[in-house]
Design brief:
It is a multi-pass membrane protein. It contains 13 helices and six strands. It starts with a strand and ends with a helix.
Length: 428
């Protein structure tokens, strides 16, 4: 009958004779049941939960194969009956790694190849008991190795792909995407209305877009602690402290980009955009937001946007267009602060919203939009029917904005803003 191979994790001799009783903890070397009841190869944990702390590992992959190289390592004893002639060794195409930890087999080659089970065959000239070993006795070796796809990143917290996705989500959520896209789209429409070519239109859109990105990212960087105190779930940096430096760097890069792109529009157009558009936005984020004059940067930025586009074409826009756009910006600011009044009061931010209250902010937004519509009606050459319909829409929207409840005021103000933008672009 074939002798048993018992592999002990802390036995410096590697493999020993099964006749010597030993109760020590063994490594993950198991034997599949034999078909005739012959003595097999023992090893491994007796139970699924029988595991010691020193050899506990997280299995990633398991490979079935032959246990090779025991007799070739220092400190491992050759079995008097079985050797390389008995257990056929073959180098598999995959090379495993066995973590060297406390309690593992010191003589096991960490780079041993594994492949399909091999049959035991008797050594030439050794008939007898070994013939019974021809029945397929399979050694199953669990080879643990770090799979590159599942390897954790340097932080050790989650896979690298998840960090990339998380960073992209933070950058998108903290750039104020909706206002950024609206202002960029308005810039493109103004460019087409003023007859700019395709190249100039793309350039001015990129200049405004990067400027809005720098303002949006810097806004959330400045407000990160305040948003965290207010429990703002819609602000990524309120809960994600680790990405704050990245967003700060993104704001700086966007600022550098908008400076270069703005100056490419020409000296007058570029400086107008940088001073009244970008600088006023950063001033709002850093200081003016907490004052009664928080509306001023919006008046300047929106009011000068038509001039930036016109100066790119080498001319000036009509004055009524700048007045209308500026009033539209004030209304946009009022609508924007409406949902934040409670949070601003909670964190001690004394801007326009907390000072005027919800009713006062509604009144300001409605008045600014009615004034913008009136400016268009008085300045542009509108047909009588269009003028009457516009006046009726303004009156109805104003009533809904002032006396409506729920989302009605917000929808009414948004509709009035669209009317103002459409009139301004149509009769520019």
């Amino acid at each position: 009958m074939a002798q048993q191979i018992v592999v002990h994790p802390r036995d410096p001799r590697g493999a020993g004779d099964a006749s010597e009783p030993d109760e020590r903890h063994t490594t993950h070397v198991r034997t599949q049941p034999q078909q005739t009841g012959d003595a097999g190869v023992e090893g491994g944990h007796g139970e699924a939960g029988d595991r010691r702390a020193h050899d506990e590992v997280d299995p990633v992959e398991r490979y079935a194969g032959c246990l090779g190289g025991l007799g070739q390592r220092p400190g491992a004893e050759r079995d008097p009956v079985l050797d390389e002639g008995v257990v056929g060794l073959a180098e598999g195409p995959q090379r495993g790694q066995l973590r060297q930890r406390h309690g593992q087999v010191p003589g096991l080659d960490t780079a041993v190849g594994v492949q399909a089970p091999q049959q035991l065959r008797p050594r030439s000239g050794q008939p007898g008991d070994l013939r019974e070993a021809r029945r397929q006795v399979t050694l199953v070796v669990f080879v643990l190795r770090d799979h590159p796809v599942r390897r954790k990143d340097a932080a050790g917290s989650r896979p690298y792909g998840m960090h990339v996705f998380s960073l992209a989500w933070v950058l998108l959520g903290s750039c104020h995407p909706v206002p950024t896209l609206i202002v960029s789209a308005l810039t493109g429409l103004l460019s087409q209305a003023m007859g700019l070519g395709t190249g100039a239109t793309i350039l001015v859109i990129l200049a405004v877009l990067t400027g809005q990105l720098s303002i949006g990212w810097s806004n959330d960087v400045f407000d990160a602690d305040r948003d965290a105190a207010a429990g703002r779930g819609d602000k990524p940096l309120a809960s994600d402290h680790g990405h704050r430096p990245v967003v700060r760097a993104a704001a700086a890069l966007a600022l550098a980009a908008t400076i270069a792109l703005s100056l490419a529009l020409g000296a007058r157009a570029g400086l107008t955009h940088l001073v009244f558009g970008v600088a006023s936005g950063w001033a709002y984020n850093a200081w003016l937001k907490a004052t009664m004059c928080s509306w001023l940067p919006f008046l300047l930025a929106f009011g000068t946007l038509p001039q930036v586009v016109a100066l790119t074409a080498g001319r000036l826009a009509p004055a009524w267009v700048s007045v209308t756009a500026g009033l539209l910006g004030v209304a946009a600011h009022a609508v924007n602060v409406l949902p934040d009044i409670a949070d601003d009061r909670l964190t001690g931010l004394r801007g326009l919203g907390p000072r005027l209250g919800e009713r006062g902010v509604r009144l300001l937004a409605t008045a600014a939009l009615i004034a913008a519509i009136t400016t268009v009606l008085l300045s542009a050459d509108l047909p009588t029917g269009t003028a009457l319909a516009t006046a009726a829409a303004a009156a109805g929207g104003g009533v809904a904005a002032l006396f409506g409840s729920g989302k009605v005021p917000f929808l009414a103000l948004g509709s009035l803003a669209l009317v103002v933008a459409a009139l301004m672009l149509s009769y520019l």
